[in-house]
């Protein structure tokens, strides 16, 4: 979690996360959230004022994408390791808190008046991924024609793909651990970006 927050607010956030993931933002009312949280509806108004503020707080607390930003500041990071770190951070959140990822998927894929808010909240991820890809291409480590298409492909693969649980009924010979999924996705994405792979137009 990303921020310190009082107990009542946390009850509201946990309840909202559960309901937004299950019912969606529009179909969840403030009364639903307060009933699930076991708090009086006035506490919602006091702590958050609007339902949109609950959504913002959810992403700030449960989806701290600022962790993805280079912790070494201006010190250069190997682009391959930087890309792996981004993938690991996203995979970790997906596998430890699928509800918050499901909410983010809803907000990104369905047009809404909250688009600008969500774009602002995920901007650290977008900026860091862009920086890593540009640096990797300049060093001859990555090969791609369109930066926008490449970024969309990576984000869609790691963040927006259908929940892995859907496929767990199929036979597989490995447990889906964070390490296993991170290594698998990193390998596939890095293979696609490899300068050794010929791009056929």
UniProtKB/TrEMBL annotation:
InterPro entries: Homeodomain-like_sf, HTH-type_TetR-like_transc_reg, HTH_TetR, Tet_transcr_reg_TetR-rel_C_sf. One of its GO terms (molecular function) is DNA binding. PROSITE patterns: HTH_TETR_2. Pfam families: TetR_N (PF00440). Residues 6-66 form the HTH tetR-type domain. One of its GO terms (biological process) is regulation of DNA-templated transcription. Keywords: DNA-binding. This is TetR family transcriptional regulator.
């Amino acid at each position: 979690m990303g921020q310190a927050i009082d107990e009542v607010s946390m009850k509201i956030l946990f309840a909202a996360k559960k309901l937004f993931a299950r019912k969606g933002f529009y179909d969840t009312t403030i009364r639903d959230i307060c009933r699930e949280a076991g708090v009086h509806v006035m506490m919602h108004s006091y702590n958050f004022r609007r339902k949109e503020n609950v959504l913002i707080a959810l992403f700030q607390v449960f989806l701290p994408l600022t962790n993805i930003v280079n912790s070494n500041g201006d010190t250069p990071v190997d682009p391959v390791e930087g890309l792996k770190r981004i993938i690991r951070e996203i995979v970790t959140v997906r596998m430890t808190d699928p509800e918050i990822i499901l909410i983010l998927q809803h907000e990104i894929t369905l047009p809404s008046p909250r688009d600008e808010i969500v774009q602002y909240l995920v901007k650290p991820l977008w900026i860091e991924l862009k920086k890593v890809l540009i640096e990797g291409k300049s060093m001859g480590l990555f090969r791609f024609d369109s930066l926008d298409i490449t970024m969309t492909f990576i984000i869609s693969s790691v963040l927006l793909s259908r929940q892995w649980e859907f496929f767990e009924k199929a036979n597989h010979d490995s447990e889906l651990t964070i390490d296993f999924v991170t290594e698998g996705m990193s390998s596939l994405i890095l293979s696609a970006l490899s300068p050794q792979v010929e791009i056929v137009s």
